[in-house]
Design brief:
alpha/beta; single chain; 9-stranded mixed beta sheet; Carbamate kinase
Length: 236
Amino acid sequence: MPLQYQRILLKLSGESLMGDQSYGISPQMLSHYAKEIKTLTDAGVQIAVVIGGGNIFRGLQAAESGIERVQGDYMGMMATVINGMALQSALEGVGLFTRLISAIEMKQIAEPYIRRRAIRHLEKGRVVIFSAGTGSPYFTTDSAAALRANEINADVILKGTRVDGIYSADPEKDPNAVKFDHISFARVISEGLGVMDMTAFTICQENNLPIVVFDIGKPENLMRIVKGEQIGTLVK
């Protein structure tokens, strides 16, 4: 079966790495991600990953502890590097070749971000993990995912979450929430449907880059999306 998407950017939240824990990194979730990503690479899909840091530290919460916003955002970026290192180890554990790339220079553990080099890694079949967000405060990892996906000419952003798509309201709080199979960027932005931040949606809207929001916890969802099945919500 031909693949709908040849090059993808997979956006994972830090919270999804917690699994059933209240913080930190779940070995079971790392293993799940590694197996799902390996299935795609074995099929010839080029994969870049952007992972959040909310399971370790969230910059927006820093103000509550008296930490200045910019400092807190940089601390959040460090958390994404830790998650990136963990994911890199899990991927290499299942036999994949990887490159961890950081928007903040840390030459002992990660490559600096150079666009052409990142694309070459993808062409060679390596899984590229983008960490440290955009390297600048005030931007979320959603914005980093939108930026990097456009820079590497990805076909789509696959946003893995704990729910199975975009709803008219929070389905965990509102039993009458309606799920969308397809939705336009304009409607997502006008109605403030907060699955990703508005900066990320706007970047993708301006560059005609589709986003699929789906349940990352369900096995084989990734492969089914890449093959063109209607899974989750398509934003375009």
